[in-house]
């Protein structure tokens, strides 16, 4: 049916896994219309589209886990694939699904500016929020209307989630120990939010200082605190978008580590499952190609 599963202990989440696998192929330069893996990308697009609810706009695997995690990754993937399908009808369907998905995300935002595991505006937490912000940015780049107020509220959410040491906490008001994963995601989504201004710049700078300290105290591959590939999905983006010394310190070490830890069958193995882990590893290694619109500076 064109999907990938998690192959792990965290539920099906086929929309999320398929979206990330699709991103890995797109980052390689393949599209539904051309490239060695064009057929696989086209099938991935069709599968994700088939999981979009035409009534409320939610894109998720009915038998999966976190609906809004899936929804965010689906928005990101479809927005990167928008306009590349050989069928004009499918391109129009992608646009329609993206429009409805943005509407669902917008009305599911909490008063504080974040999102929860289900499309419910009564709550919020950090890991879901970063998927929505990145999905919204990608959709906006694809020409879908995104209300600026939604982005402004999301920036506020990240601001009130930041600890004094610069790390991003799981849930605002900032409390507990912030993680490198959410902090790196904070950097990525602030860049993805669009214009740099008095609201985003201080958040980014404080996040970067926390990441720098974390990387000094640990090797690149051990900074994850048990969430290796999830951490590096966002850490790689944040270092690339920051550019310069940040990227130059990060990528050569991470590239070396990934090339040394790939299994004989071609997969990578972390704590989620080979579909997720391998898709993220491929994504990271192909960032320098800059094929994806989200990686354009």
Spell out the blueprint of helices and strands:
Layout: H1 14-27, H2 38-50, H3 67-81, H4 88-107, H5 126-141, H6 148-160, H7 180-192, H8 200-216, H9 228-242, H10 244-261, H11 274-285
Helix pairs in contact: 1-2, 1-3, 1-11, 3-4, 3-5, 4-5, 5-7, 7-8, 7-9, 9-10, 9-11
Note down, in words, how this protein is organized.
With 297 residues, this protein is mainly α. Helices cover 56% and strands 0% of the residues. The protein has helices at residues 14-27, 38-50, 67-81, 88-107, 126-141, 148-160, 180-192, 200-216, 228-242, 244-261, 274-285. It is globular and about 50 Å long. 50% of the residues are buried.
Would you count the extended β strands for me?
0
**SSE succession:** HHHHHHHHHHH
Q: Which structural category fits the helices and strands? A: mainly alpha
- Poorly predicted tracts of residues: none
- Please indicate the percent range of residues in DSSP E strands (runs of 2 or more): under 5%
Query: Fraction of residues in helices?
Result: 55-70%
Largest sheet: none
Average pLDDT figure:
89
Instruction: State Rg.
Output: 18 Å
End-to-end distance? 35 Å
């Amino acid at each position: 049916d064109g999907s990938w599963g998690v192959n792990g202990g965290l539920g099906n989440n086929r929309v999320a896994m398929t979206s990330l696998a699709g991103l890995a192929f797109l980052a390689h330069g393949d599209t539904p219309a051309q490239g060695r893996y064009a057929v696989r990308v086209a099938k991935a697009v069709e599968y994700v589209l088939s999981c979009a609810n035409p009534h409320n706009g939610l894109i998720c695997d009915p038998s999966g886990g976190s609906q809004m995690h899936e929804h965010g990754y689906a928005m990101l993937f479809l927005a990167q694939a928008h306009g590349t399908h050989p069928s004009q009808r499918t391109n129009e369907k992608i646009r329609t699904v993206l429009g409805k998905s943005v509407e669902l995300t917008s009305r599911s935002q909490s008063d504080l500016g974040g999102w929860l595991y289900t499309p419910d505006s009564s709550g919020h937490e950090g890991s879901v929020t970063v998927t929505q912000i990145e999905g919204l940015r990608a959709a906006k780049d694809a020409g879908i209307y995104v209300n600026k107020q939604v982005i402004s509220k999301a920036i506020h959410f990240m601001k009130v989630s930041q600890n004094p040491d610069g790390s991003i906490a799981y849930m605002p008001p900032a409390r507990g120990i912030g993680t490198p994963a959410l902090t790196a995601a904070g950097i990525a989504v602030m860049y993805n939010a669009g214009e740099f201004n008095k609201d985003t710049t201080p958040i980014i700078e404080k996040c970067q200082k926390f990441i720098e300290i974390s990387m000094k105290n640990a090797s690149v591959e051990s900074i994850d605190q048990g969430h290796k590939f999830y951490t590096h999905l966002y850490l790689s983006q944040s270092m690339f978008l920051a550019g310069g010394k940040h990227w130059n310190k990060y990528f050569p070490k991470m590239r070396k580590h990934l090339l040394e830890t790939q299994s004989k069958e071609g997969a990578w193995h972390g704590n989620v499952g080979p579909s997720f882990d391998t898709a993220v590893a491929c994504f990271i290694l192909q960032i320098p190609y800059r094929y994806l619109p989200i990686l354009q500076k």
